[in-house]
Structures are given as structure tokens and as C-alpha cells.
Amino acid sequence: MIRLGSKRRAFTLIELLVVIAIIAILIALLLPAVQQAREAARRTQCKNNLKQLGLAAHNYHDTYNQFPMNWYNGQNDTQGDPANPNYKNGSWPWTVAAMPYMDQANLYNQISQYFSVANGDAPNIGMGYTGTIGTTPSPRKMAEQPISVFLCPSNDQGSIRTGQIVEPDNGGWNAPYSGPAGGLDYVGNMGHIWAGWKDCDRVPEFPSADGKFVRGSSGTPWISERWNNDNPNINGVFMFRGSKGIRDINDGTSNTVLFFESMHWRGGDGAKFNYKPADVANWASALGAVHTMRHPINLKNPAYQYGDGDVRNWSPSSLHTGGIQATLCDGSVRFISENIDNEVRYNISVRNDRNVVGEF
User: Tens of pLDDT along 179-217?
Assistant: First the structure.
């Protein structure tokens, strides 16, 4: 029986506000959990990328008795197996050398058509070369292709970047060698050396454990140190041209870094974070494909930015909470804390100091 005159009771304003507040609290509690789950998934994918690079590097090593190498302007490599491909000229990064071993054989086969172009016919041959062979895209064009295994999903810089492209020895700091290209978030470990400009004297450092730390003198051009004898003081696994093999890793493959994360954030003025789009690296750049671990780990924190307005300094870096991920020379992948002791960081970056590596 329906009672006449009865009224349906509505929400009061206070009740509505309470419901909204409860929903807001639930969202506030749920959102961090969702974000953490997404970051955990991204970190897992990043770890898988580094694992795939480690497998590719070891498969390459099985063939040529050394890890994938950089080539510069036709320089012969005497570090590894004489059967290793000897390109006539140009600059080709280790990322290209490793492609057949990481499911990128088709792209490698296209790029490799340019390995045999005579230097006299194309003085600037290399990954920045804009000429073509038949219908094959130019190396410069192919460099614009992003490759997922080179990209950390946590990095916010995007898959296509505007970094400099290859061949500084062939005038590669200028167009057409700069512009959009596929990004690179993982670099080969060159060790703990002064591998860049000699006049970055504002960069602080602790003395190296073996007393062989190379520090340049102010005002001296970097190129004389960088190219003469390929810098014999390089104590990592990768070189500006060539690379090392397992036989050269005297400290043990489980104690030496092979690849590590580097988002290529440059140093600032010590007071603020300084990032320029043109400073990011790409897989086609031999300079971006190798780097040293001589700086503390940088998590986009101004405290880790060095130099007096000098943007020529890189460091291991990531957007993962608390540190970076790295592939060791035995193929395993480790998470390295941002609070790692400087001496330990030195020890794991150097292949031949024979120092005992502590916990990391």
C-alpha cells in the first residue's frame, strides 16, 4: 500500500561531501600503488633490455673473442680476433656491431652495405652519411629508427631524440650529422678515466685506487688525448675504437660492469639541473654508445650536477628510484644504488685494477 504524501529523502550536502572525501582518500591511497606497479613493470623491462644486450655481447664475443666494438674512420682493431670485420672507413658504433645478435639482422644488413664504400668516394661515410646505395636508405635516415632494446621505459626523453650523430672525426658535430635519431639509454663501460675534454677542471673527483687516474690540463684540446693511441689508459671494456675481451678482464667478469644506464643528462652550474635537448645521445653515435663511470650516479638530482656551466660531463643516471641498472661482464644484471661507495664504484668500472670489490 502506497502512503500518500510520502517524500523520498535526498542526500544532504554534508553527506555528499563525505562521499566525495571518501572517494578522494581511496584514490589517493590507490594512485601511488598503481604508479609503483607501473614503475616496477618498467624497471623489469629495463632489466630485460640490459639482459638482452648482455646476451648479444656474449654471442658476439663467441664469434670474435671480444665484445662489440666501435670503429672510427677505418682504424684497424688489434685487440681481438683478426677475423673481426674491418670496415674501410667511417664511424660505426658497437650498437651496430651487436645488431645481428639481438634480432636486428635486417637493419644491420642494410647498414652493412655502406661498410665497403671507399673513403675517397664518400669522405664522410658512416652513420651520419646521407648518400644512398640504390634503394637502401642512407645511414643517416636509418639512424632515425628507434630500437626498443636501447630504450629504458622509465626515461621521459622520448624514443626519438635530437642528439649529435656520429663521426666527430668527420665533422660530425655539424649538420647533416645532428638531428632526430633513435635514443640510447644504455652505454658501454669505458672504465674510470678522464675520457672527455681536458679543460673540465671544475669537476671534483677522488684519487683513483690504482694511482693511474688520468686528468687533463686546463686549456689543452681533448682530441690529442682522446685519439692518440686510442687513449692507452682506458681501463674499461669498451674503447673509442675497438673493445676488450674476457681475457682482458683480470678482475673477474662478475666484478666488472659491461653496460650501464645513462640518460645523458649533462652537468649544470651546480645550482640547477641543466638539460638541453641537443645533449641527448642516440644509438648511431659512437660517442654516445660508450662512456665512463667516473661520476657519481645521477638521478636527475642537482646535487650531482658538476662544472661551471660546462655541459660536457655525463654520469651513470636513470629515473629509477634509488639507483641505476647495469649488466656485468658475466651477463648478469644488477641494480646499483645511488649511494654506492665511490671506491666500490671505481672498482666495478675498472677491469684490471685487481682491487677487491666490496658489496654493491
Answer: 788 889 999 998 887 655 544 444 444 554 444 444 444
**What cell does 54 get?**
648482455
Q: Which residues make Cβ contacts (< 8 Å) with residue 347, sequence separation at least 6? A: 209, 251, 255, 353, 355, 356, 357, 358
Written as one letter, the residue type at 240 is: F
Nearest to 353 by CA among 191, 225, 238: 191
Total-model pTM: 0.79
Encode pLDDT of 108-136 as tens digits: 999 988 887 765 555 557 787 888 889 99
The cell for 360 is 654493491
The C-alpha cell of 211 is what?
694511482
Cα 197 from Cα 311, distance rounded (Å): 11
State residue 10 phi and psi, 5-degree precision. Answer: -100, 165
The sign of the torsion formed by the CA atoms of 66, 70, 71, 76 equals: negative
Quote the cell numbers at residue 100: 645481428
Cell of 280: 641527448
CB 319 within 8 A of CB 299: yes
* Predicted confidence (pLDDT) at residue 43 exceeds the cutoff of 70: yes
8-22, 77-91, 340-354: least confidently modelled range? 77-91
